[in-house]
Amino acid sequence: MKAAREPVPGLAIDTNLLLVVLGHRCLQYEQATTLKREQVLNRIRGRSDFVPVERFEALWHYFRTARRRVVTQHVVAEAYGSRRRLEFPKEVIWRSAIDVLTEFALEELACSIRDLRGAKAYERLLFEIGPTDAGLLHLAEREKLTLVTEDGPLLQWAGTRAVPVLHLRQI
Known about the structure:
Blueprint: E1 10-13, H1 15-30, H2 34-45, H3 53-65, E2 68-72, H4 73-81, H5 90-102, E3 106-109, H6 113-118, H7 120-128, H8 130-143, E4 146-148, H9 152-160, E5 165-166
Helix pairs in contact: 1-2, 1-4, 1-5, 7-8
C-alpha cells in the first residue's frame, strides 16, 4: 500500500471508486458542504462502513495529481449503468463525466475478454472475479499502474500478482 499523499504515476480505477470520483465532481458543481459531501459520497460508495470525508478528498487528490488515470471500457460501462446511484440531475452527471474524461484525461483502454481467456494467468480470474475486475487487474499489471479499489477479491488477486494497490481507507 502507498503512504498518504505519495505521488502515484498512474492509477487504474475500479467501477465503485470511479462512481465516487464522478460523485465528487458532481458535488463540486453543487458547491456542497463538507457534511453533505461526506454523506453523499458514502451513499454512492454503497458500503455499510462509514468513511470520513478526508479519505474522499485524498482519493480526489490522487485522481487529480496522477500522471495517468486509466479504466477499461468495462469499468466505464458498469459505471454508466450504475449512474442512478449518483442521484444528481442528469445534466450534472454528464457534465461531470465529460470533465473526468477530458479535463482530467481519464483514459479508456480496451481489454479484450478473448485475450484474457487466452492468457493462462487470467483465464481462472475471469470466472473468480469477473471480466471487469480481471480486465482491470490485467491492465494495471500490463501498464504498471496502481490499482485503486476496495473490492476484497480484487485486492487479494492484486497482492497475488504483485500489483500495487491504493485502498480508500489507507489513502
